[in-house]
Amino acid sequence: MIKASIIIPTYNRGKLLCNTLRNLIGQLPTDGEIVVVDQSDEVCSKLMEIAKNHSTQVHYYKIFVKGLPHARNYGLRQALGEIVIFCDDDVIPNHNFIENHLQNYQKENVGGVGGRIILNGNQSHCNSNHNKVIGKVRWWDAYLIDNFDAAERAYIDHVQGCNMSFRKEALIKAGGFDERFGGSAHLEETDLCLRIRRGGYKIVFDPKAELIHLKDTKGGCRADNYKQWFYWYGHNNMLFFLKNFSRSLLPVFIVSSFIRLLLSACKRGNPLIVVWGISGYRAGLANYKSNSIKQ
């Protein structure tokens, strides 16, 4: 079997991560490993106990620089596997999760895989999404179409960070994750997927590689408030567009983005959302111009 590394960045979710690890350790191939990259404020004793008791399988690293793309890149540098699987610290993978990711890489042109994501509480009402578009990036305004709860296999443009894998050589060739995607790191994985596809690889959606995403409200890289969330939403969207789309489409992107900010402000009854979002878009433009790529 292809050697695999499962990389799990974590921040202040020690107890949840312990449950995720127990699910993964039982299905880990003999030539596989789990790489935990811990950015938490405090060390979780139960997590350290699991890492100690399974030291040949679980490799624990404590780092002090915060940021999801940074943690992913750090884990990538430690990983020994030909295939690297990324999942969040608050997920429940199905019993063949790892194997179902790996099976897709029998085809050499497959550079990445996105797995099925069932949101916690939606298990009994899961949408099969028959004949719906899965994992596409709209070419004219960079809008994302997800539908990652679908039950049909498909070729896709992008994946979602809580359940994704890549051929390591393809990921390194693409330059890894761009650490300028801050806050919740929205679009970091999408940006990477577009670079991998430009490298000649295909990305597959495989519903058999399934997990339940608990989406815990504490820890992780969740925003503390609307101001923070919409600032980084604007920043990351602008950075993503400038990196990956034609400048001729910039007016369309700006108008559609402004409309989405207005709708969000109306929905939440807070006009400051527009101000925070525009501030983020301006910061994303400045960050792009600075060429301060950290990879």
Please, could you describe this protein's structure?
There is one protein chain. The protein is α/β, with parallel strands linked by helices and 295 residues long. It folds into 2 domains: 210 residues, Spore Coat Polysaccharide Biosynthesis Protein SpsA, Chain A, CATH 3.90.550; 65 residues, no CATH class. 38% of the residues lie in helices and 20% in strands. It is built from 9 helices and 11 strands. Strands 1, 2, 3, 4, 5, 6, 9, 10 and 11 form a 9-stranded mixed β-sheet that branches. Strand 7 and strand 8 form a beta hairpin. Helix 1 packs parallel to helix 2 and helix 7 packs across helix 9. It is globular and about 55 Å long. The two termini are 30 Å apart.
* CATH structural fold name of the largest domain: Spore Coat Polysaccharide Biosynthesis Protein SpsA, Chain A
The CATH superfamily title of the largest domain: Spore Coat Polysaccharide Biosynthesis Protein SpsA, Chain A
In DSSP terms, counting alpha (H) and pi (I) runs of 4 or more, how many helices?
9
Total number of domains: 2
Mean pLDDT: 94
Named at the architecture level, the CATH assignment of the largest domain is: Alpha-Beta Complex
Report low-confidence residues grouped into runs of 5 or more.
none
Give the C-level CATH assignment of the largest domain: Alpha Beta
The count of DSSP E runs of length 2 or more, i.e. the number of strands, is 11
Strand fraction: 15-25%
Helix percent reads 25-40%
Order of helices and strands: EHEHEHEEHEEEEEHHEHHH
- Classify the secondary structure makeup into a structural class: alpha/beta
Outline the biggest β-sheet.
9 strands, mixed
Q: Per the principal axes of the C-alpha atoms, what is the gross shape? A: globular
